[in-house]
Amino acid sequence: MAALVRRGRCHVYGDHLPLDEGIMPFRLAIQRVNDPQALIPHLFEGFDPGFRERVKPGDFIIAGRDFACGKTHIQGFIAMTALKMSVLCTSMPYKAMRRAVAEGLPVLVGCEGAAAFAATGDEIEVDFSTGGARNLTRGSVTQFPAMSPILRELAASGGARGALTAWLRDHPEQAAGETVKP
Amino acid sequence: MAAATGAERSAGGLTAAQKILARASGRARVEPGEVVHPRPELVIIHDGYVETAYEQLTALGYGRVRDPERLVFVTDHEVAYTTPRAVERGRSIRRIAKSWETGRMFDVGRGGHGHLFPMENGLIRPGMFLFAYDMHCTNFGALGALAVGAGPEITTVLATGTLWTIVPHTLCVRLEGVLPAGSHARDVGFLLAHGFAEGTWNVAYDYRVIEFTGPGLQRLDLAARVALCSSITELGVANVLFGAPPPGIDTAGAPDFLSDADAAYEARITIDLAKVEPQVALPGGPERAAPAGSVAGQRIDHAFLGSCGSGMYQDFVDAASLMRGRSLPDGVRMFVVPGTTETARRLADDGLTQVFLDAGAVLLPPGCGPCAGGVMGPLGSGEVSISTAATNHEARFGAKDGAAYLGSPFTVAASAIAGCIVDPRSFRGSAR
After folding, report:
1. Which of residues 38-97 of A touch B (CB under 8 A)?
2. Angle subtended at Cα B183 by Cα B181 and Cα B186, rounded to the nearest 5 degrees
3. CATH number of the domain that residue B209 is part of
4. In angstroms, what CA-CA distances link B257 with A109, B18, B114, B142, B238?
């Protein structure tokens, strides 16, 4: 099974950060914009105007309770995945967590005390298979709940799309052949 | 997504959800928080998503789905084609059904609402596990089946025959007493949704199975159970199940689908049905419940009976009991949407269709009716609606600036005749 260890700088937020207007402008969800390059400049735009200049590939979002609440539009997850970001949060709605992982975004839920472990700008390293986390800026370590092996594999292999590609490779009998074209 | 506790890992009793998921996953026992890969007996997709699923899998190179014999296409979102695009979509779905060798295809006018007719025709059975595209498949809990709404991940089910699923915790809701006249299971659902969202009981409900138990269940028929399932689903619960066999359904030979007496519920709450008053859900969501009397007098333009939550025969019996011999006032249009073709037939045979037509209501074909985005019988800009729809989020029935209230079949029928929202207990509409 693929290891999933990520290192990056943190952006720390509080509770109840909504998908619409918090993580991504609602209009981009309604327009069903799915191009990561069109979405990335708007990530956290309404909530944290300085994010666009600060963010770097591989960064972490650290959030409190109910991260990514509201209607489960996926545009924010698409942008974060394209930036190879990861999320540590206290909790998030189940459906949002599913959609995030299905897009290929590594998510650790149940991370009580994550906001005390790292501040915005700190560099951390997280091993998703064990939940072990190191704050490289402070020289401290902590333990979060591990990510389920099944979910970790899914996130590491490109989400649902990556898994479906792999499945077809292993099951060539399901590949398109002489089928009726609608 | 909480991990199972040590106590639950000991050999205690099992919830119904644990039993059904264990069976579907080929396991003796599963625990809340575990990730499993259950194999569904059926996979149901409605007409609004078949093309998208096909396009996505085709783009990845797929030509075949894993278990075509388990696949069911239902047509309930756009039943009476109202645009050339809808005609083309119907044609496309029929071709896809052929291409994928889909096991069962319920086309326009065949079956009706895909969250209702499979309970009438024996497709859904107690103890069954299935996946569906649409979240309101929780209806099947009324019959003791566990249906998981996979949403866009239904493509994974189609391709691989399963989908990772976390075994949910179960919250026990004990029902005591008897509903007073004029109150309805739908009102119980609105009150529960409100209480969950407001933290009345301080219990977690996100991705929890809500299991109804207690003596109050005895007087709730299948339509009432469906109303309970539907009115709390939009909150994000995992499923809705019941602690007693479905009324009027032969469960002989069914696998074990009821929780053990010592099942490890995550929390328990009690509802006294005798104290339930008629409710409306204010525009914005089923959890925005308020006593119907608190908005009495609110003028309406549009009313609608039906949807997956209130489209069974008994729902129309309840509404007709208040509408018989009465007429809709000028300026109020009302749509009556039998959930299934079988319900439509019974309503016609028993003279209830005539009650609605005599009142001036419009009969629409079995299916979702206006609740599917207002493709039929939409709400206009600045208008006010009261209906038994599954939800009333912004623009659900059409206009973004329309105001959609929800109520029970009693409340909707009484309000339609009155021309304004009324508490059905105080309804004294004049006969023709």
Report:
1. 93-95, 97
2. 150
3. 3.40.1060.10
4. 31, 9, 22, 12, 16
Interchain proximity A176–B54, CB inside 8 Å: no
Give pLDDT tens digits for A2-20: 689 999 999 999 999 999 9
Domain hosting B174: range is 167-247+254-275
| Same domain? B144 vs B191 | no
Contact A172, B159 (CB under 8 A): no
Q: What pLDDT, in 10s, does the model give residues B322-350?
A: 999 999 999 999 999 999 999 999 999 99
Query: Is any Cβ of chain B less than 8 angstroms from the Cβ of A167?
Result: yes
Interface contact B61-A176, CB threshold 8 A: yes
B151 contact A CB<8A: yes
DSSP string, B143-180: GT-EEEE-GGGHHHHHHHS---EEPPPEEEEEEES-PP
Pick B95's closest partner by Cβ from A95, A176, A180: A180
ipTM of the shown complex: 0.91
The reply to whether residue A94 touches residue B1, judged by beta carbons under 8 angstroms, is: yes
- The verdict on B149 and B173 lying in the same domain is no
Find out whether B149 and B114 touch, Cβ atoms under 8 Å: no
Q: Which domains are present in chain A?
A: 5-171 (3.20.19.10)
Chain B environment of A177 (Cβ under 8 Å): 63
CB proximity under 8 Å: B 223-252 to A: 236, 238
What's the whole-model pTM score?
Answer: 0.94
